[in-house]
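P.,

For your records, the input lines for the assembly:
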Amino acid sequence: MSLVLLLLVPLLGGALAWPAERVNKNLPRLVSLVSLAISLIIALPLLHATKTGWLADYNIAWIPAFGMRFHLGLDGLSWLLIVLTIILGMFAILVSWRGDQEKTGFFHANLMWSLAGTIGVFLALDLFLFFYFWELMLVPMVFIIAIWGHENRRAAAIKFFLFTQGSGLLILIGILALAFLHQRATGVLSFDYFVLRQNVPGGTAGFLIMLGLFVAFIVKLAAFPVHVWLPLTHTEAPTAGSVILASILLKTGAYGLLRFVAPMFPAACHELAPVALWLGAASIFYGAILAYGQSDLKKLIAYTSISHMGFVLIGVFVFNALAWQGVVFLLIAHGVSTGALFIIVGAVQHRLHTRDLSRMGGLWTDLPKLSSFGTFFVLAAMGLPGLGNFVGEFLILRGAFGAAPIVTIAAAIGLIPAALYSLIAIQRAFHGPATAPRAVPDFGLRENAMMLALAAAIIWLGVYPQPALDAAAPSLTETAPGG
Amino acid sequence: MNQAAPLLVLGGTVALLLAVIAIRRGSGLAPAAAGGGLLAALGVIPAAMRAPPLWPNLLDVGGGGFGFLALIIATATLLLIIGAEYWRRAARLPPDEFFLLLVIAALGACVLSVAKDFVALFLGLETMTLAMIGLIAYARHRPEALEAGLKYLILSAMSSAFLLFGVGLLELATGSLDFATVFAAPVNPLMAAGFAMLAIAAGFKLSVVPFHIWVPDVYAGAPAPSAAFLAVIPKIAVLAALLRIGGLQGATLPPAAAQTVTAVAMLSMLAGNLLALQQQNVKRILGYSSIAHLGYLLVAILAAGSLGRVAVVFYIVTYALTMVAAFGVVAVLSNAGAGRDAETIADLRGLFWTRPLPAAVMTLALLSLAGIPPAIGFIAKMYIFAAGVHTALWLLVGTMIASSVIGLFYYLSIIIAMTQKPAADATAARLPAAGRLVLGLVSLAVFGFGVAPQPLMTLVKVMFG
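Structure tokens returned:
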């Protein structure tokens, strides 16, 4: 039942936040924040130290005519991602607390509904229900981009919508084919994850279904060459939207690969693995090189996400528990560090009214706190040892080396351009002479507190990764083929 | 009580309306009388379902006939309320005959959907069509409406001519006008020609490619409630007739015909969605969208078997709800006395800021047309995909995916236009209560059944057996 509450609380929070703006401009923010806090209180105790495997389960009939069930389940993997979703969601609300938004109520309603859809994606164990949530989380996000985005928001919203919806249809076809093939083999029509896993078709049919799901998930993950929606979308979205897009929505693609593609189609995945691994390596380089060439700070960060998700793709397709641990870890660390970076860029834009690196420079003298946090999180994203991202990348490379040494070497070389774009970004934004005299306030109490919390999280993940690894371990050993 | 009770009630309503209008035109009683009659016809359906048959040779209400009657009458009722609200604002134009024509057209559609032989089919079709010409051209102060009415008149007459010629050929070959006898007879070239002409007539009414050319002009020219009627009710009735014929013994499609229908379905999906891309007029867009949706429906019709039939019925129910919602928004925003409806995308710009309720309803309707949760269109699209995947119609399923993605673009464009900032001088009058009632009801159904579709599935199963 607590799983249903995890969905209902943000949904209701959103529904309440909308009319709340009539009372007071800050009330929608408060309502959203409180409902996320309640969700967090519900979610946190679900992870027991004593219980492994599936921590909670909820299963009732939904559309009996098709054997579709409202089946939610929580294991360590989904727990981690849901907690990440809730916490980053709270930051997304805090980041625009003082902002002079129009239609605050509708904004927060969309924010909450998008988060609820994402939580649903991480919980659903009926494939059709999964797809339902998958689609559901997009529409509110499209609104956030289209209404509150920057200059080019219309194009960004349309591109985002077309790519994710279009690839979503591949999931739908795949799921339907899977269910009907299962029905033909066993006489039972079901969309349940556990039922379908018993009897996955092999051969060409199995491969094609797997391929459809794979393509849809890497569109979401934004791997090369289907990443084209990401830079524009992440750049044009408002800060809160970018935080959710980069820190949370990208992770649903990786989750789909880990939860559905790899465990359900092990044989077909092994066939596809060489291609997937090289796509991962290509993403690492492509993202890094394009990030290096950007003059728009926000777009630079967007491209680094493509690079980091390349590591995730490699990690998934080497099929061993160590690399998968790294994948999960990197998902969380990337969520924290990139979320923080988007918050910082949002703060810069709010103060200087530009994201253009050539018009920055010398920020450190004017905005020392902002600049030092910025430097810290850029270094974290780069994979500095002692910080969270390093652990994830290291585990992935360590796990991948045994399975695919050449790709691993290539991926490791990809860390060099990562250092390049990181350092050039720090250099151009924070150091050097100032282009113009600025009289803008530095981070205040709210922003400092947010940054400190995120920095503490990334340090904690970096120096003491074991709790997060332990949380994910049981679900990964259960699903990893040949773990 | 007998099975024909709903039809008799509708016929009585027509007589009553004539009397009301004859006694005093513009008394304001006409919409109430029409609405009462439609509701009464809807109300007698449950009793009629348990009654013995009456006219075995002309009408057959078995096999889902009552479901279609209920769907047609319910949709007509909703459109009547929207229409009453729409015409109330046009002071110069007494709308009494509009309601009369609407009830007559609904009666014709009902007869068509339960026809058992070609006489009843033709009677129903012509009753519906002739009344609809009046509905389309009713806004006679608008040249576009007159033009649309004229276009519809000429093309309907042509398609009726095809139908009559086809029926004549079939009668010549088999000596019978009864569906069952005609479709059970072995096919010879004469009959094949007859069937082809029937198919052309059906194509006109369903407005599938290549018989779709009239759609955008007529939809855009007709006043919004009439356009909604035109988009929904004839299609329900013709599909009901097709399903009835398709359920008969020996009515399987030969391979060549199936290939033709496949091509028509693919072209309709692609042409409908591609042609909508460049449009700025919402009624035109909805017209093109209806072409694409009929293409999707043909996929379900081709996917024979029980799943295909259920998919068709579920889809047409969804389509009716959604189109009523979309055209309903245009209608409540428009003024019948004005030179045109609030029908361009520019008219809808900023609607979210000035009038959140119609904007939300329109968004829900567009999401439903695009097949995105939580709107019911998603479940309906899933049905069609399921039917297509189940019967391995991969080419059609592939085309459907491609055209769905194209379709997303123009649906989203409208939604985004509604979210943009309105002009500074934009003012919004309060929506009329009846408009809010219909929009609220329809969007509740679109949303509610999109979240929990099982009740509707059960209802469809009961009503359409």
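Two observations worth noting. The interface with chain A takes residues 352-353, 367, 370, 372-374, 378-379, 382, 385-386, 389-390, 397, 401, 404-405, 408-409, 412-413, 415-416, 419, 452-454, 457 of chain B (CB under 8 Å). The radius of gyration of chain B is 21 Å.

Regards
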